[in-house]
Predict the 3D structure of the following.
Amino acid sequence: MFGDNGYNTYVRREWELFEGDGARARASLEAVDGGPMSRVLDVGCGAGQELLPFVLERGAVGVGVDASPEAGRAGRALFSARAPGARVAFVRAVAEALPFAPGSFDVVVCRL
Protein backbone atom coordinates (compact mmCIF):
# COMPACT_ATOMS: atom_id res chain seq x y z
CA MET A 1 0.00 0.00 0.00
CA PHE A 2 2.72 2.47 1.01
CA GLY A 3 6.48 2.34 0.76
CA ASP A 4 8.33 2.39 4.07
CA ASN A 5 8.56 6.18 4.09
CA GLY A 6 4.97 6.61 2.91
CA TYR A 7 3.58 4.31 5.59
CA ASN A 8 5.65 5.93 8.32
CA THR A 9 4.41 9.35 7.24
CA TYR A 10 0.82 8.08 7.14
CA VAL A 11 0.80 6.57 10.65
CA ARG A 12 2.56 9.56 12.17
CA ARG A 13 0.00 11.89 10.57
CA GLU A 14 -2.84 9.76 11.96
CA TRP A 15 -1.24 10.02 15.43
CA GLU A 16 -1.07 13.82 15.13
CA LEU A 17 -4.70 14.02 14.01
CA PHE A 18 -5.77 11.93 17.01
CA GLU A 19 -3.70 14.00 19.45
CA GLY A 20 -5.19 17.20 18.05
CA ASP A 21 -8.79 16.05 18.45
CA GLY A 22 -9.63 15.58 22.13
CA ALA A 23 -13.19 14.61 21.23
CA ARG A 24 -11.97 11.34 19.73
CA ALA A 25 -10.21 10.33 22.94
CA ARG A 26 -13.23 11.28 25.05
CA ALA A 27 -15.56 9.34 22.75
CA SER A 28 -13.39 6.23 23.06
CA LEU A 29 -13.41 6.38 26.85
CA GLU A 30 -17.12 7.17 27.03
CA ALA A 31 -17.96 4.21 24.78
CA VAL A 32 -16.69 1.81 27.45
CA ASP A 33 -17.27 3.94 30.55
CA GLY A 34 -18.07 1.95 33.64
CA GLY A 35 -16.40 -1.22 32.44
CA PRO A 36 -12.94 -2.52 33.17
CA MET A 37 -10.12 -1.01 31.13
CA SER A 38 -6.95 -2.62 32.43
CA ARG A 39 -5.92 -4.32 29.16
CA VAL A 40 -6.77 -2.76 25.79
CA LEU A 41 -6.15 -4.23 22.34
CA ASP A 42 -6.05 -2.10 19.18
CA VAL A 43 -6.44 -4.24 16.06
CA GLY A 44 -5.02 -2.63 12.93
CA CYS A 45 -3.28 -0.17 15.23
CA GLY A 46 -1.04 1.79 12.88
CA ALA A 47 1.04 3.81 15.36
CA GLY A 48 -1.29 2.96 18.25
CA GLN A 49 -2.82 6.39 18.77
CA GLU A 50 -6.20 4.87 19.66
CA LEU A 51 -4.53 3.41 22.76
CA LEU A 52 -3.55 6.86 24.07
CA PRO A 53 -6.62 7.67 26.18
CA PHE A 54 -6.65 4.22 27.74
CA VAL A 55 -2.98 4.05 28.66
CA LEU A 56 -2.57 7.71 29.63
CA GLU A 57 -5.87 8.46 31.34
CA ARG A 58 -6.83 5.03 32.69
CA GLY A 59 -3.40 3.48 33.26
CA ALA A 60 -4.24 0.48 31.07
CA VAL A 61 -1.75 -1.79 29.39
CA GLY A 62 -2.13 -1.27 25.65
CA VAL A 63 -1.32 -3.77 22.93
CA GLY A 64 -1.33 -2.78 19.29
CA VAL A 65 -1.63 -5.37 16.55
CA ASP A 66 -0.91 -4.65 12.91
CA ALA A 67 0.23 -6.69 9.91
CA SER A 68 2.80 -4.05 8.99
CA PRO A 69 6.21 -4.15 10.70
CA GLU A 70 6.49 -0.39 10.15
CA ALA A 71 3.47 0.18 12.39
CA GLY A 72 5.17 -1.25 15.46
CA ARG A 73 8.36 0.68 14.81
CA ALA A 74 6.50 3.96 14.41
CA GLY A 75 4.32 3.27 17.45
CA ARG A 76 7.25 2.42 19.71
CA ALA A 77 9.08 5.58 18.60
CA LEU A 78 6.05 7.83 19.13
CA PHE A 79 5.17 6.41 22.54
CA SER A 80 8.81 6.61 23.61
CA ALA A 81 9.02 10.28 22.61
CA ARG A 82 5.57 11.51 23.63
CA ALA A 83 4.34 9.15 26.33
CA PRO A 84 7.41 7.42 27.77
CA GLY A 85 5.61 6.13 30.87
CA ALA A 86 2.88 4.40 28.88
CA ARG A 87 2.76 0.62 29.08
CA VAL A 88 2.38 -0.44 25.46
CA ALA A 89 3.53 -3.28 23.25
CA PHE A 90 3.20 -3.94 19.55
CA VAL A 91 2.69 -7.33 17.92
CA ARG A 92 2.81 -8.15 14.24
CA ALA A 93 -0.30 -10.18 13.45
CA VAL A 94 -3.52 -10.06 11.48
CA ALA A 95 -7.03 -9.69 12.88
CA GLU A 96 -8.03 -13.10 11.54
CA ALA A 97 -5.36 -14.87 13.61
CA LEU A 98 -4.79 -12.97 16.85
CA PRO A 99 -2.16 -14.61 19.09
CA PHE A 100 -4.11 -14.09 22.33
CA ALA A 101 -6.36 -16.30 24.42
CA PRO A 102 -10.05 -15.38 24.56
CA GLY A 103 -10.77 -12.94 27.36
CA SER A 104 -7.24 -11.49 27.39
CA PHE A 105 -8.52 -7.93 26.95
CA ASP A 106 -11.19 -5.77 28.54
CA VAL A 107 -11.51 -3.47 25.53
CA VAL A 108 -10.86 -4.11 21.84
CA VAL A 109 -10.58 -1.20 19.41
CA CYS A 110 -10.82 -1.83 15.68
CA ARG A 111 -11.47 1.08 13.39
CA LEU A 112 -11.01 -0.79 10.11
